[in-house]
Amino acid sequence: MSNDSDRLVNAPDGTPEPYGDPSGMAAPATYDESHVPVHHEADPIADPGLPPHHWRPTDVDPKAEKRAERQIAAMFVAAMISALLFVVAYFSFEVGDNWDTFAGMGASTVSLGVTLGLSLLFIGIGIIHLARKLMADAEMIEMRHPAASPAEDREATIQALNDGVAESGIGRRPLVRNTMIGSMAVLGLPAVVLLRDLAPGDALDTGKLAHTIWEPGMRLVRDVTGTPILASEIEVGDLVNAAPEALFPTEENGYHELHGAEEQAEKAKGAIIIVRMDPDDLTPATQPDKWTVDGIICYSKICTHVGCPISLYERTTHHVLCPCHQSTFDLADGAKVVFGPAARPLPQLPLAVDDEGYLVAQSDFTEPIGASYWEREKQ
Amino acid sequence: MSVDTSKVATSNRTEAATASKPGPAGSLASWADDRLGLATMMKKNLRKVFPDHWSFMLGEIALWSFVVLLLTGVFLTLWFNPSMGHVTYEGSYDQLRGIGMSEAMASTLNISFDVRGGLLMRQMHHWAAMIFIAAMMVHLLRVAFTGAYRKPRELNWVIGCLLLLLGTLEGFTGYSLPDDLLSGTGVRAADGFLKATPVAGSYMSFLLFGGEFPGESIIPRLYIIHVLLIPGILLALIAVHMLLLVYHKHTQWPGPGRTEQNVVGFPMLPVYAAKAGGFFFMVFGVIALMGGLLSINPVWKFGPYDPTKVTAGSQPDWYMGWPDGLLRIIPTGWESVIFGYTISWNVMLPILIVPPLMLVVLMLLPFVESWITGDKRDHHLLQRPRNAPTRTAVMVALMTFYGLAWAAGGNDIIAIKLHASINQITYFMRVAIFVGPLLAFWITRRWCISLQRHDNELLLHGYETGIITRSPEGQYAERHLPINTKAAYTLTARDRDHIHPVGSDTDAAGVAAPNSRSDKLRAKLSSWMYGHNVQKPTAAELEAAHHHAEHEAELQSGLDHPVDGHQFDDHRLRDTDEVPLRDH
Amino acid sequence: MQLLNRTAGRLSRHRRGPLAGLVVLFLGLVLSGSLYTALAPAPANSQASDTDQIAQGKELFLTSCATCHGKNAEGISTVRDGYQLGPSLVGVGAAAVDFQVGTGRMPMASPGAQAPRKEPVFDEEETAALAAYVASLAPGPAIPNESDYSIEGLSEEEREEAIARGGQIFLTNCTACHNFNGAGGAMPRGGYAPNLHGVEGKYIYEALLTGPQQMPNFSNGNLTPEDKRDVIAYLDSIQETPEYAGFTLGGLGPVSEGLFAWLVGIGSLVGAAVWIASHTTRSKKSKVNA
């Protein structure tokens, strides 16, 4: 049956038109699988058929029709005005060094957004109003077809496939078939191997994850300003967000400047927090005799969960919280995890003071910092 | 199928079409058709019928916001520079002038502050992305709750699930591009996720970042994934999704004249095209208004990414919120070391195991359902959620799981806004994530079954008129009137559920039947799924009830209509297709 | 045109308008005048008024503070180890008192983990007296002068540099708790870092100096006075900067953005879909030519 004859219109004169054979429409569906019970019970209530179509006021009342026309045209005109206002706004409001503002907001962004938005909304509402009020709105009926192909098509296709396969002779020549499949499978290797140099040759060294730029005698400096920290200037309750001095090279300290990826990687691993607390509050886990200076204690700033920098420090509880997933570490107790998903304490940086009284590292961290990884314990 | 077409018009025009001389448009059309043969294809589809219901337009929101994404995205690429090269910012934003940052960040600031309309386009792009994924999810829920994923639409369901996954990845790669502090924190967490992968994790991280985190490669790589790879796949899958929609024809709600064999609605040209086209402009307009009025991702306040900085409220965009919530509620210390190798359950479980598992569960839903029910028929009529209580309850349970995990991802914001403790919220979520879905399942299923029972009440005893009558004996009763035929038919236009019978262990010859174990499981599941459902009344039951009602009515007062002021007490009097008529 | 202001972008533009000079002159006059009235009488009888002030402060302290902090401000411990009803105030300095009492945090309505900001109980004079008393117990940080936390005295270029530098220090030391926008954030066990919007520069300086409640110190050995000044300048500048992008949705980041995407975006579009698919009014009449 052609598509044209499947498609019917609900009769538009207020009287229900038969649109087909009701009994055919309401025929009970049958299961096509034998193991499902087939029910041939009729519906308890027969299908009354599509209700008659009613006209809209705009269909029968020329006044209403005209009114709708005017409304729709007004919306399109409003859309034009909005679009023109967009152009006006584009050229009249400055951005850059000298933003115009409107009620404390950027005049350009707000006015462009509002004029563009209104223009689009007016067009959209106008079109939909047109469809709802003026376009013919009798419901149409279209017949469905099964998604499956007709049985004869299926058979013909299978036949064609079989013929094709038979003529190719692939089935009869397993040697050819298997080597062909094999050759294509092996072609996957070049595709995978090609990706090897996503990281440069020497970059695949997991050992790097275990070491940072910290080395014995390197000063701890304040982050951002890069100034070294006198142990005597730090008060109980202080939190210093700090970094290794090597990341702030000057002529005096003699460190050579790092660039780009190397600098970022060392920054990402070397960040630390320094706090000072009453030395009596420190537990043996913090190695108060060896690694701290008068209650000044230093930990990696990188969370051992997935590596966010953490510095939400509470001075009275000595807890530090990660803003990403709320792992909480007790800095007075070896940065033991007291809450949240992290599994390991923050690595501690062994501290000392140099001749001038500045805080220095005794060594690198004694374990890898940051998120866990497969080979972590091997290093 | 034989259909009597003699009395039905094939067009809803009132005057006969008359052949006229082809104008310039006509000549162009025949020129094109001479070469492309378009007429055959278009003849079939120009007047294709689409049913009209608000819930059928949810997918359109996703489609149109995707178009907005393409348009605004192309605009952004004209200025955005996906490079991690280091520059000192010298642009218009005072607070960052003189600060070192990547070219990606600097060009994002340039788009925001020095390109007219650039900030609007950035914000529209971001809002459209949030709405794109939200609309896909709302559309997915509509399809699931109405059973539209049943045969023959299972594959389209699977494609839809893949679109959701790809949309999410596209969103993540997109919001990571500006290289600001918030997105950089997200990328660093993603590095942590990669490293938690057993065996290959560290290498995967090195390969993605081109060395150690953060490297100088990640932004250009995410960029090409974001603007070429994923959009290409998205476009292709959306095309297949739409083609299958056209091929299957849209599902429809059951009702008078609406059957499994037909589709009743408006033709593609002109009504449906106008409505869909108009809706495109509305989606575009709403996104433009949001982009102009509501600030989103103010990267200038976050500043450039610096691996030593972080901000409170470091959260991903909403669609990545639920795995983030799962990460947050894992109890302390879930990590083990086996043979010297570290296995981070605390990251693997919420990121690498549960979300992919959820996706697989989602994709398998239609297949599992059809295996349990043994129903292999095509379905084009939708089910009301109440008429598939178990499916509805399963979906609500999944939604509850998702919602709780999602809320856990915002636990710090909830804590500030509600003056609660993050710790208490987290403890609560650790329990609720298990108890909540079970409770939701149970409540939803009972609720659906009650609604089914209510439907049967309406069919058998009619609706409550609000008229109280007193019998001569002094007994008070509320008068019920039957609902109209169309409403009654609509209520009964659903299948009876068939519990799969347990097959015998042995076949007729006494040999153990194959598959008997899976058969038994299936029978059990089928009775679990359908056992409590209320079936529609049979014709005999209806007959008996109506007979009884007539008898009652005779005994009661002679009113055959509701008293004044109660005519519309029952909205069902107004059939779904008929709004009250008015004189004007 | 009150609403439309063509000079909000660069900080410096304010002073370039034709009226800007007059405004600055006027502000300068007002400022110096009020500073004069505030400071001038003090040197005349400072010695005598200091002792009076301390005595007045002690009196206020005994009635309003001693219950928790002890008669001599030595602090009172509770039964629970490590917890105090009120900590010792010896050595906290005038800055701590000025912050806690001036922002209304002290006296607390009831003992708890965190004292919220509220209407101050004491007026300026009483606060000053309390501060003088506590400062007299032991040396501690003094109340900062306006010059400590204001960049008014700097040249235009220096000010811009100070703001940019302050932003980096803010993002390194403050945003972790107070959020990128200074909107505040959650801390463990129901604690929170308060919103910094609208907080006077003096109080921010004092808070940095003294570390109120759970907040760590940022003493001068940690963040130099210039660092603190720059942070305050940055905070002021982001509050003065126009919202280029529209309403900020609370400045809370992606959570509130997600909420708006759902409520406003999906909400309005689903509403539109309902309207598009709804049925229009029908007429009882039938078409004449049908």
From TrEMBL, chain A:
Transmembrane segments: 72-93, 105-131
Protein name: Cytochrome bc1 complex Rieske iron-sulfur subunit
Keyword Ligase: no
Function comment: Iron-sulfur subunit of the cytochrome bc1 complex, an essential component of the respiratory electron transport chain required for ATP synthesis. The bc1 complex catalyzes the oxidation of menaquinol and the reduction of cytochrome c in the respiratory chain. The bc1 complex operates through a Q-cycle mechanism that couples electron transfer to generation of the proton gradient that drives ATP synthesis.
This protein's record includes keyword Cell membrane: yes
Superkingdom assignment: Bacteria
Main location class: membrane
Cell compartments where the protein resides: Cell membrane
Positions of region (Disordered): 1-64
TrEMBL record, chain B:
Lineage top rank: taxon: Bacteria
Presence of the UniProt keyword Transmembrane helix in the record: yes
Needed co-factor(s): heme
Catalysis performed (reactions): a quinol + 2 Fe(III)-[cytochrome c](out) = a quinone + 2 Fe(II)-[cytochrome c](out) + 2 H(+)(out)
Keywords, comma-separated and alphabetical: Membrane, Transmembrane, Transmembrane helix
Enzyme class at the top of the EC tree: translocase
Coiled-coil residue windows: none
E.C. number(s) listed in UniProt: 7.1.1.8
Basic and acidic residues composition bias: residue spans: 545-554, 561-584
Compositionally biased residues, Polar residues: 1-17
Start and end residues of each Cytochrome b/b6 N-terminal region profile domain: 28-254
Transmembrane regions: 54-80, 127-145, 157-177, 223-247, 278-300, 347-368, 388-407, 427-444
Gene3D superfamilies: Cytochrome Bc1 Complex, Chain C
PANTHER family given in the database record: CYTOCHROME B (PTHR19271)
Protein name: Cytochrome bc1 complex cytochrome b subunit
Protein source organism: Nocardioides astragali
Automatic annotation (TrEMBL), chain C:
Record-listed E.C. numbers: 7.1.1.8
Signal peptide: none
Keywords (A to Z) from UniProt: Cell membrane, Electron transport, Heme, Iron, Membrane, Metal-binding, Repeat, Respiratory chain, Translocase, Transmembrane, Transmembrane helix, Transport
Gene3D superfamilies (UniProt xref): Cytochrome c-like domain
Mode of membrane association: Multi-pass membrane protein
Source organism superkingdom: Bacteria
Pfam families per UniProt: Cytochrom_C (PF00034), Cytochrome_CBB3 (PF13442)
Enzyme class: translocase
InterPro entries, per database record: bc1_cytC-su (IPR009152), Cyt_c-like_dom (IPR009056), Cyt_c-like_dom_sf (IPR036909), Cytochrome_c_Oxidase_Subunit (IPR050597)
Location of the protein in the cell: Cell membrane
Identification of the protein by name: Cytochrome bc1 complex cytochrome c subunit
